[in-house]
Specification:
The protein is mainly β and 370 residues long. It has helices at 75-87, 95-99, 300-318, and strands spanning 46-47, 63-64, 101-107, 111-130, 161-166, 172-175, 184-186, 195-197, 222-224, 233-235, 244-262, 281-288, 294-295, 322-332, 335-342, 345-352, 357-359.
Length: 370
Amino acid sequence: MDDKDGDLGVFDPNIPEEGPSAPPPGWLDVIHGYQGHTGGEDDNPLYPPPPAYTPQPELNRNTVVPNVRVATVSEDVARDALLKFVESKWRYSSKPARNLTFKELKPITVYRYRLETYTETRTSAWQFEPYKGQMVDGPQYGMSPPPWDIPLSLPARYTDVVVKARVPHSSFVKLCHKCNGCGRVRCNMCHGRGMKRCTFCHGHGHNHSSNRRCSSCNGRGRKRCVSCHGHGNKTCSVCSGSQNLLHFIELTVTWKNNIADFIPDRQPDFPDKKFEKVTGDPFFVDENVLVYPIQGFPDQEICDVAAKLINEHLNRFSATSRILQQRQTIELVPLTHAHYSYNGKDFSFFVYGVENKVFTSKYPTACTIL
């Protein structure tokens, strides 16, 4: 040790160095029904639902879809939609939209299939809080119920919600693992000495070039540690000085609406991603604990994709979560390809969605700022 280090004071050997921020493996007790916990960080076991919670599909069952008519857009509606679009683009002039001549309004049949699977997932993890005399609901009050036997109120269907709940009878008190029950820990900035060597004069107390007394430390060569205010130790950040921790298992229940959308890509001139921001007419809605592949719909690709997604959701989510409800929807998303002429040249644009949004890759006239 450098002779200068002796001037920094001595540390109290009764104050321990900082321990781990999380309980090490093997530190915590074993709670019946939650033996998957090994302790340590990132210990968050997933509990698949019991077989009684897993719905089983009926074999060879299908769902019939009604026929639907393709919606049409009038010239007035198409023109108004284009004018609204042009107004949102400062580079575009509204004159072409007002004076264009329509040549053809071609409605295009676009179906969007959507499958929603509403699931419940349960995981748990050890948590702790400073023990300050609060009630300890431990094993002495009974055995902890299994994760899926803990009752919780269901949220509104198809809403994403996360709820945390303390597992009954899983609590116990232990000495704080960070300070070993001392309530304070040695300051790691000054190593428990309360003082630090002055960084301006490097502990000499004077300036080498002028041999004047250092103005930062007043010639002492050391300064009070700003981290612990010169005490050499700090209140334990884990137990807040209470010396003990109340440990308990916290159950995390996640309700999630898992959504899969599909629109056949059959319009090379129209970007399919535009459909994501508009709505359609949901002429078919089928809802049950489990839904089944559709049958008799004129678009066979929709039928094939529906069967594929239903099977994928069942296999993916039933292995780790409880499927509470499924809903499949077929929307007719309005799409019209409007062909028109202006100043002797031909142009076109698309009107899409119930909102009558407009997409165009080319517009007749643009204002130019000189």
